[in-house]
Amino acid sequence: MSLVLDPAAQDLLFREARTANTFTDEPVTDEQVQAIYDLVKYGPTSMNQSPLRVTLVRSAEARERLVQHLAEGNQKKTAAAPLVAILSADNEFHEELPHLFPHFPQAKDLFAGSREAREKNAALNAALQAAYFIIGVRAAGLAAGPMTGLDFEGVRKEFLDDDHTPLMVVNIGKPGADAWFPRSPRLDYEQVVTTV
């Protein structure tokens, strides 16, 4: 069975997609980011929790504050990227469940009494949404450079609050010169999939 998605789109979203390490200076607009979000918000999450939150780092001052919390190998490319997004999990996502999951009015109450349950669900579902976001960046014809080499607590204190847990930082823009490292190997189907 073949895939329904056009092969060119398969290449754009997956086969040719790479983590960009350099970018041109072409700006990434708010309209582009909104188009990305308006596409990826439809990706499924458990109980439609939708805990991903996106903090766009645009100002030079904010960029400097962020760069100091990144691993050394990530600092230069983040300083030069046209746009940087901090992706985080909202641990108070349950407050939105009456709107997001209206056919089950008790959904909010399932999480209201347990911060631990909220954090666990927020982390899993926001990570899923972060993957959608990266694919959405690619669908917009842009390159994404997701990174987890950072001081998570430092980023949280600098940009977020106690109700938000940072997941990653994503550089976004048009790829620049020598943007790609060589393609790394992948596991084969037989190494990953088992049938029981």
Put the structure in a nutshell.
The protein has 196 residues and is an alpha+beta fold. Helix content is 43%, strand content 15%. The chain has a four-stranded antiparallel beta sheet.
Verbal overview:
The longest helix has 25 residues, at 115-139. Helix 1 crosses helix 7 and helix 2 packs across helix 7 (115-139). By secondary structure, the chain is α+β, with helices and mostly antiparallel strands. The chain is built from nine helices and four strands.
Order of SSEs: HHEHHEHHHEHEH
Structural class: alpha+beta
By DSSP (H or I, 4+ residues per run), the number of helices equals 9
Head-to-tail CA distance between termini: 21 Å
Number of strands: 4
How big is the Rg? 18 Å
Q: What is the overall pLDDT average?
A: 96
**Describe the biggest sheet?**
4 strands, antiparallel
Unreliable residue stretches: none
Helix content: 40-55%
Shape category: globular
What percentage of the residues does DSSP assign to strands (E)? 5-15%
Strand order of the largest sheet: 1-2-4-3
